[in-house]
Write a structure and sequence with these properties.
Length: 400
C-alpha cells in the first residue's frame, strides 16, 4: 500500500519469496509526486503533478545499519535517519529504492551492547531520559533477537542481489509506466503526447554508511555471480555509482593478496603512499569491531575492504559524497575515521582510471548528512550531471 506524503509517496515491498517474509528482506520505493525542473515535460500522474524526464532516474540505495541489519526493533525507531536519504532524492524528483538487508551482530555480549548504547547516547547528544531509554531498549532488543537471525556478509549481499533482481523484473512498475501512459493520453496536449511500452532509465546504485560497504562488496562480486543471479553485469546496467559517507575500508592495510593486486594494477598508488594511507593508531579497535560484526579473522573470516579491492571494481563513473568532518567530535576521528575514507577511495579509483568525483560537505557529519540542506543541494547538482552524461556502455544497457 502506498503512503502519501508531501512531495513523495512510499510503498513497502517484499523482494523475496521466502514465506517468513522478514522485514529485513523488504524495500521501500520512494516516488516523487512533484518535480519542478523546467527541463522536462510536465504530465499529470496519479495524485500529484509530475514531470517526466526523457530518461527518468532510479536510484538504488542500500541503507546503513552498522552491519546490524534492519530488524524492525532497530529500523522503526531510527527510520527517520535512514529514510532521510530516499526522501531527499524523491523530493528532488527522482525515484529511489531503499534496500534493507539482514544483519550480523550476534557476537556481542550484553555488557558490550550496553556500553555501545550508552556511547550512542553520548555521541548523538541524546541527553534526555526518554531518548536514552529508547536506545537502551533497541540495544537490549537487538541482543535478544539478533542471534536468531544473524547473517554473514554473503547473506547481506545475497539480499541485495535478490532486491536487484526484483528491481530488474519490476522496473516499469517502479516508474509507473501505465500511469504515465494514461496521463499522456489524457493530457491537454494529447496530440503531441506519446505512450511507451518501456523506458530505459538512468540507474544509480550505491549505499550509505555500512550500506556503502555492502553495496561496494556486491558491486565487486565476480561476473559469474551476477550471471548466476539472473542479472546483467554492472557495466551493462548501472550508469553511476553513488556512495554517501560510505564505509569503504574495514582494515587499515591490505592483506597479501590485495597488496599484489594493487601493485599489479597501478604504480601510482601503493599501500605505502600517503595518498591512501589510513591512520593505524586504533587498528586494534577496528579489528575488534570487524571481529564482532563478522567473526574471528583467525578462522579465515576476512570481509573485503573496497579500498583495497582493485581488480574487481567495475569501471563505472563513481560519485562519492562525504563530510569534511565525518564525526561530530574530533577525538573520535582516529578511532572511527578508518572506516570513512572517501578521499582515499577517490584516489584509488583515479589511479585505476575509473571516472570519479568527490563532494565534501562542510556543515554535515556522518549522522546528519542525509537530512542536511547541503546534501540536498549537492545531490541536485549530481543528478543534473547524471542526466547530462551517458555511460559508454549505455547503448547496450538492457533492463529486461
Amino acid at each position: 500500500m502506498k503512503r502519501q506524503h508531501k512531495g513523495y509517496s512510499v510503498e513497502t515491498i517484499q523482494y523475496t519469496d521466502d514465506q517468513s517474509k522478514l522485514f529485513e528482506q523488504s524495500l521501500d520505493v520512494y516516488r516523487p509526486t512533484t518535480i519542478t525542473s523546467t527541463n522536462h515535460e510536465r504530465d499529470n500522474v496519479g495524485n500529484g503533478a509530475t514531470i517526466l524526464p526523457t530518461r527518468p532516474t532510479i536510484t538504488i540505495l542500500v541503507v546503513g545499519s552498522g552491519w546490524m541489519g534492519h530488524l524492525p526493533i532497530i529500523y522503526w525507531p531510527t527510520s527517520w535517519w535512514n529514510s532521510s536519504g530516499p526522501k531527499t532524492i524523491a523530493k528532488l524528483g527522482h525515484t529511489c529504492v531503499c534496500v534493507r538487508h539482514r544483519g550480523a551482530f550476534p557476537h556481542f555480549l550484553g555488557w558490550e551492547m550496553l556500553l555501545i548504547g550508552c556511547g550512542c547516547c553520548a555521541l548523538l547528544g541524546l541527553s534526555s531520559l526518554m531518548h536514552s531509554l529508547i536506545v537502551i531498549c533497541i540495544v537490549v532488543g537487538m541482543l535478544a533477537i539478533a542471534p536468531a537471525s544473524s547473517a554473514t556478509l554473503d547473506d547481506m549481499t545475497d539480499d541485495v542481489f535478490a532486491a536487484l533482481r526484483w528491481i530488474k523484473d519490476n522496473t516499469d512498475d517502479i516508474l509507473e509506466i501505465d500511469a504515465i501512459n494514461e496521463a499522456s493520453t489524457t493530457n491537454q496536449h494529447a496530440n503531441t503526447a506519446s505512450t511507451t511500452d518501456s523506458i530505459d532509465p538512468i540507474i544509480v546504485f550505491g549505499g550509505y554508511s555500512s550500506g556503502g560497504h555492502v553495496a561496494a562488496t556486491t558491486l565487486s562480486k565476480p561476473k559469474e555471480v551476477w550471471t548466476n543471479k539472473g542479472l546483467p553485469q554492472p557495466t551493462e546496467w548501472f550508469d553511476h555509482i553513488l556512495l554517501v559517507s560510505g564505509v569503504l575500508a574495514v582494515s587499515s592495510t591490505p592483506n597479501e593478496s590485495q597488496r599484489k593486486q594493487i601493485e599489479s594494477a597501478s604504480n601510482k598508488a601503493t599501500p605505502s603512499d600517503d595518498s591512501i594511507a589510513l591512520d593505524t593508531s586504533f587498528e586494534w579497535f577496528q579489528r575488534w569491531v570487524v571481529e564482532k560484526a563478522f567473526g574471528d579473522e583467525k578462522n579465515g573470516i576476512q570481509p573485503p575492504s573496497p579500498l583495497f579491492e582493485t581488480n574487481s571494481i567495475p569501471k563505472i563513473p563513481h560519485t562519492l559524497i562525504g563530510c569534511e568532518r565525518e564525526l561530530m567530535l574530533d577525538c573520535f576521528t582516529p578511532i572511527l575515521g578508518i572506516f570513512l575514507c572517501s578521499e582515499q577511495y577517490l584516489k584509488r579509483l583515479q589511479s585505476l582510471g575509473i571516472p570519479c568525483t568527490y563532494e565534501s560537505l562542510k556543515t554535515a557529519n556522518h549522522w546528519t548528512i542525509l537530512n542536511s540542506h547541503e546534501f540536498s543541494d549537492t545531490l541536485e547538482t549530481c543528478y543534473d550531471k547524471f542526466e547530462a552524461t551517458t555511460f559508454d556502455n549505455n547503448s547496450s544497457k538492457k533492463i529486461k
